[in-house]
């Protein structure tokens, strides 16, 4: 295992250091070859680092910055006023080769904008895409892109997403010829928007891609495709719908108080033991649908690794984002994508 350094935007997300620092410490405990650069307000960070063991503290470097970039007045304003912010300084550490990857739970659009400017897309890539693994009912995984970085996508951009996604799936799942599908409102060739139909025609011409056609939203978790391609608008809605559904189901099974008021008391008496039985018997199968295990969407198509954590991520979820960043660096994902695109 290679030694590496990750730059973390400690202030990003809804909870900031309260989540990001404990997750960072847990990552250091689990990965002895990992060093971490923490970017944030040292006055807020310091209490969370006060009593940690020396063997962990010596692998952490603190970088004070009082500013946190926010996207409350538009993207262009946020980018212009990002200098000195925890997010920007973390990305600059990657640009300057002081770190090999960046992890942030900050605003997606700002993270994408700064990463494109400071790190640059790979040669030939029009737009980097936000990609993440999603679970399937057969116990395996698929990947899906784009998940919100690009709202409007041309047919050519969707084709590039398919190419990058296939390379990512090959390395993530050790596949030789991953199945690629386009998310659409039907499986018939004439269904959907023009850019999706045009993308299908372009992807079909790429003989190195195993294109299997359109996939509908109700089959996203069925393992029908290894790579699911869509624009960021549809992808973000689909992903958050899946995550929200999973969390609500877990809540209904686990928490008596989470059940809706329309469930009558008699039905509650039946559901509570049934829910506990299902959780106990199928704990392993159900746990794979826990959204925390898939936190950490990557900006695919950049010259370096940037991982976007959910803003609402808890400690376990942020830890998964850190692990994802470390895996991509050690797997040399950016260079493998570049090499794969050059072959195509």
From TrEMBL:
Pfam families: FA_synthesis. One of its GO terms (cellular component) is cytoplasm. Keywords: Acyltransferase, Cytoplasm, Lipid biosynthesis, Lipid metabolism, Phospholipid biosynthesis, Phospholipid metabolism, Transferase. One of its GO terms (molecular function) is phosphate:acyl-[acyl carrier protein] acyltransferase activity. It catalyses: a fatty acyl-[ACP] + phosphate = an acyl phosphate + holo-[ACP]. The keyword Lipid biosynthesis applies. The keyword Metal-binding does not apply. Belongs to the PlsX family. It is found in: Cytoplasm. Pathway: Lipid metabolism; phospholipid metabolism. GO terms for biological process: fatty acid biosynthetic process; phospholipid biosynthetic process. It is an enzyme of class 2 (transferase). Homodimer. Probably interacts with PlsY. Its EC number is 2.3.1.274. It comes from the Bacteria. The lineage of its organism: Bacteria, Pseudomonadati, Pseudomonadota, Gammaproteobacteria, Pasteurellales. SUPFAM superfamilies: Isocitrate/Isopropylmalate dehydrogenase-like. This is Phosphate acyltransferase. Catalyzes the reversible formation of acyl-phosphate (acyl-PO(4)) from acyl-[acyl-carrier-protein] (acyl-ACP). This enzyme utilizes acyl-ACP as fatty acyl donor, but not acyl-CoA. Signal peptide: none annotated. InterPro entries: FA_synthesis, Phospholipid_synth_PlsX-like.
């Amino acid at each position: 295992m290679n030694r590496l350094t990750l730059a973390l935007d400690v202030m990003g997300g809804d909870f900031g250091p309260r989540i990001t620092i404990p997750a960072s410490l847990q990552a250091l405990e689990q990965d002895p070859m990992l060093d971490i650069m923490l970017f944030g307000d040292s006055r807020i960070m310091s209490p969370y680092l006060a009593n940690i063991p020396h063997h962990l503290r010596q692998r952490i470097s603190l970088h004070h910055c009082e500013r946190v970039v926010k996207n409350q007045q538009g993207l262009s304003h946020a980018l212009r006023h990002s200098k000195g912010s925890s997010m920007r300084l973390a990305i600059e550490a990657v640009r300057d080769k002081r770190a090999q990857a960046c992890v942030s739970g900050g605003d997606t659009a700002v993270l994408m904008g700064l990463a494109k400017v400071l790190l640059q897309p790979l040669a030939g890539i029009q737009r980097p895409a936000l990609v993440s693994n999603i679970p399937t009912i057969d116990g395996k995984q698929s990947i899906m892109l784009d998940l919100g970085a690009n709202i409007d996508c041309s047919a050519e951009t969707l084709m590039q997403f398919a190419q990058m996604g296939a390379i990512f799936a090959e390395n993530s799942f050790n596949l030789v010829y991953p199945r690629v599908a386009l998310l659409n409102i039907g499986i018939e060739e004439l269904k959907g928007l023009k850019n999706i139909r045009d993308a299908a025609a372009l992807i079909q011409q790429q003989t190195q891609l195993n294109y299997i056609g359109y996939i509908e939203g109700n089959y996203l978790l069925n393992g029908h495709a290894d790579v699911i391609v869509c624009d960021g608008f549809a992808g973000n809605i689909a992903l958050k719908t899946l995550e929200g559904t999973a969390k609500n189901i877990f809540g209904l099974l686990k928490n008596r108080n989470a059940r809706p008021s329309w469930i009558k008391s008699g039905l509650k008496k039946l559901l509570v033991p049934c829910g506990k039985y299902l959780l106990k018997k199928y704990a392993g199968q159900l746990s794979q649908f826990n959204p925390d295990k898939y936190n950490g969407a990557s900006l695919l198509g950049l010259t370096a690794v940037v991982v976007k954590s959910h803003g609402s991520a808890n400690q376990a979820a942020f830890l998964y984002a850190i692990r994802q960043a470390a895996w991509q660096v050690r797997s040399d994902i950016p260079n493998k994508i570049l090499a794969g695109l050059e072959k195509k």
